[in-house]
């Protein structure tokens, strides 16, 4: 799946008055050999009631997955496209995610500096729960962490993060920056980075070698939910919502893809969409979402202070480690050999935990062209040494896609933490 894939056929569902039901929606993988084939498919799908689930090739990442509504299934079959059903009922997958568990505070012993209860990772939580968990985490490491906000979303929610440092004191070392949940429906990403933040602090407090050395040498800035409005919307209205919740004059559809909005190579043809109804809508102007402005200003400030060693934008799903560049398949990062070597080590370490395969390589070659993506901006403009995007478990829509049961959270955290430890040891 290549250039046009990101720009075509990504029509969002109309706004629904009540919570959207995905009962009976089938996830279908469509094979597309090349751009031309993909364009044909996108045209053929016009008029059908479906949601684009993105690039979902089970092994070779060719083609893409869509979720087709029950009332459009027979029309889809009549198209005779080369495709296969990978998931029978997305509504059932969403049910299997379980209830959103309220989290007030699960600290074992308020005030004593104890880490929050690890049972937090047994279920999915609402936005307030994520805010509180991060505060509890910081309270457990009071001399070496602080809560910050990079800025506010369209609807005024904070892009809250935790800043964690080691023996050098706050803000004295090059940065490691992690962002998650820019795409609202990618629920596994926030608890995965929160789990790793937990492990970093726990490891440091235990005197474990790699967490200790890494935190003494780098300042961590971790924002688990960078698209809070979209995230809240997935829990109250539409589980498969991807974009932010920005309304625009004259536009029929709501929402901009904040990860097509970064002001660098923003309008490269084929890597995003100028259509406000598309899932990859890039915005009217480069960087014109409040969320992007907040993330950009924070990242720039941190980079200017002490440099950026490593940036990750955490996504799901497909099990991939994506390196610069997204905007072009011919442009090559100057340190691509080093980045590939390190990514290979990370993939090996991830596999060693639960046996999952994570493919890796430059974004454009590995999945498709993306314009205005975070890692290109952070690499070229903010000058990060390593600027990656991860696509977490599962590998394909056949394993549940965006909606996977909460018993995936701890394994996802464990395998990616092993990957990070491998990387940190190689710094
Ligand atoms: Zn994503």
From TrEMBL:
CDD domains: M14_CP_A-B_like. Keywords: Carboxypeptidase, Hydrolase, Metal-binding, Metalloprotease, Protease, Secreted, Signal, Virulence, Zinc, Zymogen. Gene3D superfamilies: Zn peptidases. Residues 1-18 form the signal peptide. Residues 123-427 form the Peptidase M14 domain. It holds the Pfam family Peptidase_M14. PROSITE patterns: CARBOXYPEPT_ZN_2 (PS00133), PEPTIDASE_M14 (PS52035). Its main location: secreted. Belongs to the peptidase M14 family. This is Metallocarboxypeptidase A-like protein. It comes from Hapsidospora chrysogenum (strain ATCC 11550 / CBS 779.69 / DSM 880 / IAM 14645 / JCM 23072 / IMI 49137).
